[in-house]
Amino acid sequence: MLSLLSGVSLSGQAQPVEPEWKLTFKNAYIERNFDSEVVRDSGSWSQSASLFYTSHMKETPVSVDGNPVTIGVNASTQYAVRLSSDKHVSDGILPFDPVTQTQAADYFKYGATLKLGYQETLVSLGELWLDLPLTTVDSSRQLLNSYWGGNLRSQINDQLQLELGHITKFSPRNEEDFRKFSYTSGGLTYSSDALNYIDLRYQFSPQLKTEYYFGYLENLYHKHYLGVEHLWEAEDFSLVSKLKYFNAQKENDELNIDAQNIGMLETLKINNHSIGLGYQQIIGDSAYPLLDGLLPEPYFINWNATGFFKKDEKSYHFIYSYDFKDFIPGLNTTVKYVAGRDFKTADGRENKESETNLIGSYSFQQPYLKGLSLQYLLLDYNVKHGTDFTENRFFINYSKKF
Questions:
Q1: What is the DSSP code (8-state) at residue 94?
Q2: What number of helices (H) and strands (E) belong to the chain?
Q3: Confidence bin at 264 (pLDDT 50/70/90)
Q4: Backbone dihedral angles phi then psi of residue 369, each to the nearest 5 degrees
Q5: Can you give the three-state secondary structure of 137-174, one letter per residue?
Q6: Where do the domains of the chain lie?
Q7: Which of 303, 295, 302, 123 has its CA nearest to residue 215?
Q8: By percentage, how much of the chain surpasses pLDDT 70?
Q9: pLDDT tens-digit series, residues 88-101
Q10: DSSP labels for 118-131?
C-alpha cells in the first residue's frame, strides 16, 4: 500500500515536519495467457511517473476553546505510457475503448485534497486514499485508484479511532476520470450516488485489536465487517490470528445480494520463516458482491487474482515466506496456494478452482540505489469447468522523498 499521509498524523495539530514530495517511477510488464482458443491473451508493458505532495498542517487564525484550527493540502499527479503494441483487448491495466477495441497509448490522473484539523480530528475533502473493506488502494498493476468525497478521522482516546465518510465517486486503476460506484448483475448495471460509512478501530491491548465497519451504498447494498486480530509473541516466534466476518445485503429489490464471508488466518513467524494457514467460506443466497471498476477486496482472507468469492465456495489458504536478510538483505520470497471448492457453474455443475502465486522481491540496499526495488509474480490458475490461465508480472519501482 502506498502511504500518502506521511508527515501528517491523525491529530489536526501542526506537525514539526517539512512538507513532503514523493516521486515514483514504475515499469510494469504484465501478461495473462489463457488456456483457450476463444479467450484472447491480454497484458501490456508500461512506464509511469507519479508525484505526490503532502503538506504539514498549519495553524489558522481560527481557534476553538483556545485550540487552533489547522489547514493543509495534498495533491497527486499520475501518468503512464504504453510501451508495448496495442493487443486490442482489455487488460484491466490501461484504459480500453470497447467500441473501437483500442487500448490507450497513455493516460493521466490527478487530484487534490483539502485538510482541516482540530485537536485529534482531521477532516479531508477531495481526493481520498482509503484503506477500508469497500475502498482500498490497488497498487498491483500500474496507476493507483483513488476516491472522491469527504471523511473525518478522530482519535477518540488512546484505544479508539473513529472514521466517518461520504464518498461520491472513484477513479479506477485503468481509467482517468472519477465515476459513480456501480454494480452489474444479469447484464444490467445499477449505479449509486454515494457510499456512506463508519469505521471503528479499538485496541484492547498491544496484542489485541478489533475493527467494525458499516458501509451503505445507496441503491445497491450495505455491508457489515467485523475483524479481530491477536498477536502472541515469544522469544523466538510470533503467532498472528485473524478472524473476519462480512455480511452484504441488498438495498435494491432488483438485486440478488445476500452473502456472508467468514474467514480465519493463522500466521506463524519463526526467525526468517513465515507460515500461514487460512480458511474462507461464502454463505448465503448469492456470490459475495464486488463493485464494478476492478475494485479489490484485500480485506478478505483469501483475496487473489480470482477472488474465491463465489456462492457457497469454501477455500483453503497456505502461504510460506522467507526473508533472506541474513544472506541477501532486501530479498524476500513467497509461495501462496489457495484451493476453492463446493461451488457450481452457471449451469449447475460442481466446480473447483485453485491459484498458486510465486513472488520474489528485492529492495536494493546500496545508498546510491536507495528507493529502487524489483518484484516478480508468477500466477497459475486452474479450474475444473472454465478457463485456466497463467500470468507474469514484473515491476521495477523507484521512489524518492524530498
A1: S
A2: 0, 23
A3: very high
A4: -115, 15
A5: CCCCCCCCCEEEEEEEEEECCCCEEEEEEEEEEEECCC
A6: 231-402
A7: 295
A8: 96
A9: 999 999 999 999 99
A10: ETTEEEEEEEE---
Query: Which is the CATH superfamily of the domain at 231-402?
Result: Porin (2.40.160.10)
Could you please report the per-residue DSSP string of 59-82?
EEEEEETTEEEEEEEEEEEEEEEE
Handedness of CA 89, 92, 94, 98 (dihedral sign): positive
Taking the alpha carbons of 176, 305, 298, 196 in that order, is the dihedral positive or negative? positive
Q: DSSP secondary structure string, 209-222?
A: EEEEEEEEETTTEE
User: pLDDT class for 320, splitting at 50, 70, 90?
Assistant: very high
> Residues 6 or more apart from 187 whose CB is under 8 A from it?
none
Q: Measured between alpha carbons, how far is 52 from 1 in angstroms, rounded to an integer? A: 14
Please report the pLDDT score of residue 16 as a whole number.
Answer: 40
Alpha-carbon span 49 to 268, nearest angstrom: 37
Strand 372-383 to strand 389-401: parallel, antiparallel, or no bridges (unpaired)?
A: antiparallel
Which residue(s) pair with 318 in the sheet? 277, 337
Instruction: Measure the CA–CA gap between 106 and 113, rounded to whole angstroms.
Output: 25
**Mean pLDDT score, 141-166:** 98
pLDDT band for position 307 (cuts 50, 70, 90) = confident
- CA-based Rg of the chain, rounded to a whole angstrom? 22
Say if CB 82 and CB 103 are below 8 A apart. yes
What's the pLDDT score for residue 17? 55
- For the cut 90, the answer to whether the pLDDT of residue 8 exceeds it is no
Place of cell 522523498: 401
Q: Of 293, 290, 326, give the one whose Cα is nearest residue 308.
A: 290
Q: Residues in the chain, how many?
A: 402
Q: Please give the Cα distance from 100 to 106 (Å, whole number).
A: 16
Count of Cβ atoms closer than 10 Å to residue 307 Cβ: 20
Residue percentage of the chain with pLDDT more than 90: 93
**Which backbone phi and psi does 367 adopt, to 5 degrees?**
-55, -40
Average pLDDT of the chain to the nearest whole number: 94
Gap between the Cα atoms of 168 and 146, Å rounded: 12
Distance CA 47, CA 152 (A): 35
Q: Is the pLDDT of residue 33 over 60?
A: yes
Three-state DSSP class for residue 368:
helix
Q: Please tell me the predicted confidence (pLDDT) of residue 235.
A: 87
